[in-house]
Amino acid sequence: MPLAAYLAFGTLLFGIGLFGLLQRRSLVSVLVAIDLMLAAVSVNVVALTTLSGRDGSLGLVVSLILVGVAAAETAVVLSLSVAAERRSRGADVEGDPEIEG
Amino acid sequence: MSWAGALFGVAAVIALIGAVGAVGLRSAFHNVLGFAVAMLGVAGVFLSVGHDFLAIVFVLICGGALPVVMVHAVLLNRPAGEAPRPRGRAATLGAAAVAAAGAVAAWLVVSGAPWPPAGGRREVEAAWAGYRFLTDYVLAFELVSVLIAVAMIGAVTVARRRRPKSEG
Fold first, then answer.
1. How far apart are the C-alpha atoms of A23 and A43, rounded to whole Å?
2. What gap in Å lies between CA A41 and CA A21, rounded to an integer?
3. B168, part of any domain
4. What is the pLDDT of residues A22-76, one digit of tens each?
5. Does B96 map to a domain?
6. Using CA atoms, how far apart are residues A2 and B84, in angstroms rounded to an integer?
7. Cβ distance of B95 and A19 shorter than 8 Å
8. Is the ipTM of this complex over 0.95?
9. How far apart are CA B41 and CA B34, in angstroms?
10. Which of B48, B83, B118 is the last residue of a domain?
């Protein structure tokens, strides 16, 4: 498959994730959207490093780092979600001034 | 069409369907299920490009571990994972417009860049990547380790139930 097909797929996935990030209110749904965007970045990096004839291990390393970042982000966001629910406010990113920023 | 091309096509369709479900369905629980399907599709895309190890990592972690943790959080929450009040039509259209503009901008940047000529699909050895991880990229490896440790401590600190202070 040509490199453009992978890049187009990654861009589509990134756009869907960006839409979810902007449109959803639930903290868990926002987290899902951010993880979709991170996966799209992984796809692009892997395709670029592998299909351009260079050392593909760079893409593997970057993707593993992104998986670690996604795992850390998931832990923090889900703990925020549980804490927000415990305070009876609901995990709404616009309902809690401390989350909203 | 080669088997890699066919695999890419099937996996990309599965991933996009899962991604649309992950952001389009109203229930947070269904969003998580859609995310798991999308990650399985992304793993298939990695398989088609020769990254077998990365595909397994995505199936185990992004398609398995992360959704399980997310489902736990959804079920622990009070409204049984039901999303808060939905956004209005104008906000949804605005989000779609911004997302489309962002995707188009990303595509213009990526497609317009002078990438080196394609060298075809190459197998990537996980052992070689692991070697480079612990030599050339050891700083990034350690930074991710510290990040995960700090995130775990922070998550426990935020989510733990605080005991009321005893008086006297």
1. 23
2. 15
3. no
4. 888 788 889 999 999 999 999 998 888 887 766 667 888 889 999 999 999 998 8
5. no
6. 42
7. yes
8. no
9. 11
10. B83
The residue range of the domain holding B132 is 126-161
Q: How far apart are alpha carbons A68 and A33 in whole angstroms? A: 16
Residues B80-121 have pLDDT tens digits of 444 556 677 777 888 888 888 888 887 888 777 776 666 555
Question: What CATH number corresponds to the domain at position B18?
Answer: 1.20.120.1200
- Cβ neighbours of residue A98 under 8 Å, at least 6 residues apart? none
Structure tokens at B142: 């350690």
Radius of gyration of chain B (CA): 21
By the 10 Å C-beta count (0-12 exposed, 13-18 middle, 19+ buried), B19 is classed as buried
Query: Does residue B91 lie within any of the structural domains?
Result: no
Let me know if residue B109 belongs to a domain. Answer: no
Mutate to test the interface with B, among A7, A29, A66, A89 (most CBs of B within 10 A): A29
Quote the CA–CA distance of B23 and B151 in Å, as a whole number. Answer: 25
Shared-domain flag, residues B66 and B142: no
- Please give the single-letter amino acid code of residue B2: S
Q: How far is A97 from chain B (nearest CA, A)?
A: 16
CATH topology of domain A3-100: Helix Hairpins (1.10.287)
Residues B130, B79 share a domain: no
Question: B146: which residues sit within 8 A by CB, 6+ positions away?
Answer: none
Contact yes or no for B42 and A83 at CB 8 A = no
Domain boundary among B53, B83, B113: B83
